[in-house]
Design goal:
Elements lengths: L1 H20 L1 E6 L2 E2 L3 E3 L5 E2 L1 H13 L2 E6 L5 H6 L5 E7 L2 H4 L2 E3 L8 E6 L6 H4 L3 E5 L3 H9 L6 E5 L2 H10 L4 E5 H9 L7 E8 L2 H4 L3 E6 L3 H17 L1 H9 L8
Helix pairs in contact: 2-10, 2-11
Pfam families: SBP_bac_3
Organism: Chromobacterium indicum
Main location: periplasm
């Protein structure tokens, strides 16, 4: 009996140590402030990073952030470079063919940033250059709705580069997540004379129900754990604490 108890305790300890040692590798594009960027200290920071750390704490695993340019995120996930993508990736039918998603962890509209007073319609945008993030839902929407009507869609590997070109006049507008447009450009001293123009864009056909966490196809166990963790941080206040650090509105959405 004594030996059995010792063996049982040993197995329990091993299980505990194994759980403590579990690492969740998370792919993130660090060129998408305020959601993700590399800080002055070289460490990843932003809303997505803090949400990732909160989810890992809820799941009792160690977070390992793996930087990856946006257009390589899904290929790298499927090549086993990391276990999940937490990088403001919208849940769309096209992406669901390649990966599985958790339920959403936030949902905001996309907006056009341009010189104040710019008209946003097919006729006004004909011949204009519109900057978008490569392989993004904004790129797909812009090509289908404005590119086919004579606008030139200019794709960027890194979102901040589009704002540099907007200011220098290389593009006439940038189409992006509204929070990125606001905090990365419109709230800066460089944005004088620029504004959000046109309506909010949230067509489910292009933008889905919001941003989710992507995992490899068929990894239902990880999806379930992530869904449970999202629900937990929404209930225990950890989500709101992260949200309020970066935004003055409810980013989770209806």
């Amino acid at each position: 009996m004594k030996k059995a108890l010792i063996a049982s305790a040993g197995l329990a300890l091993l299980a505990s140590l194994s759980a403590q040692a579990e690492t969740l590798r998370i792919g993130v594009d660090l060129n998408y402030p305020p959601f993700s960027k590399q800080g002055a200290d070289g460490k990843p920071q932003g809303f997505d990073i803090d949400i990732a750390n909160s989810l890992c704490a809820a799941m009792k695993v160690t977070c390992q952030i793996v930087p990856q340019d946006w257009d390589g995120l899904i290929p790298a996930l499927n090549a086993n470079k990391f276990d999940a993508i937490i990088s403001s990736m919208q849940i769309t039918p096209e992406r669901q063919k390649a990966v599985d998603f958790s339920h959403k962890y936030y949902n905001i509209a996309s907006r056009m940033v341009a010189k104040d007073g710019t008209k946003v319609d097919a006729a006004s945008l004909k011949g204009k250059k519109i900057g978008v993030l490569r392989a993004s839902t904004q790129e797909k929407f812009a090509k289908d709705n404005w590119g086919k009507n004579g606008a030139s869609i200019v794709s960027y590997a890194k979102s901040p580069e589009s704002f540099l070109d907007l200011k220098s006049g290389r593009v006439d507008a940038v189409f992006v997540d509204s929070a990125v447009g606001e905090q990365e450009f419109l709230k800066t001293a460089q944005a004088k004379g620029y504004a959000f123009v046109g309506p909010n864009y949230s067509d489910v056909k292009y933008f889905g129900p919001g941003c989710g966490i992507a995992v490899k196809k068929g990894n239902k166990a990880l999806v379930e754990r992530l869904n449970k963790a999202i629900d937990q941080i929404r209930k225990d206040g950890a989500y709101k604490k992260v949200q309020d650090k970066y935004f003055s509105f409810d980013i989770y959405g209806g």
